Amino acid sequence: MMIDSEPLPKLIKFIQNELMGNSSVTISQDDDLLGGGHIDSMGIMRLIAYLESEFGISVPPEDVTIENFESPRTIATYVQTALNQRS
Q: Where does the chain cross the membrane (predicted)?
């Protein structure tokens, strides 16, 4: 499996297309996903499943925090850290 070293563009595309259901609505890397109403708790669960399958990482429940999942940038940082710890 090929691991993309730049998770941010993939994350934004997934969030816009799959979680928000409207690719014409754009979000930036710093948008507050939960506070801004872009995704809900079910969306977070779908996002975690996506991260685990797309990037081959494990997201334990204790890592599902506002700090890690606030924006596309914080999620990408979390993914990159998880990938770095794995290798």
A: none
Q: Evaluate whether 75 touches 51 at the Cβ level (below 8 Å).
A: yes
Q: Low-confidence residues of the chain, pLDDT below 50?
A: 1-4
Closest alpha carbon to 78 in 36, 13, 60 = 60
Instruction: Say what the pLDDT of residue 1 is.
Output: 38
Q: Spell out the alpha helix ranges (H) of 1-87.
A: 7-14, 41-55, 66-69, 72-86
CATH of 28-86, one of 2.30.30.40, 1.10.1200.10, 3.30.70.20, 3.30.420.60: 1.10.1200.10
Return the structure tokens found at 17. 């297309």
- To 10 degrees, the CA torsion angle through 9, 78, 40, 43? 60
> Which amino acid, residue 5?
S
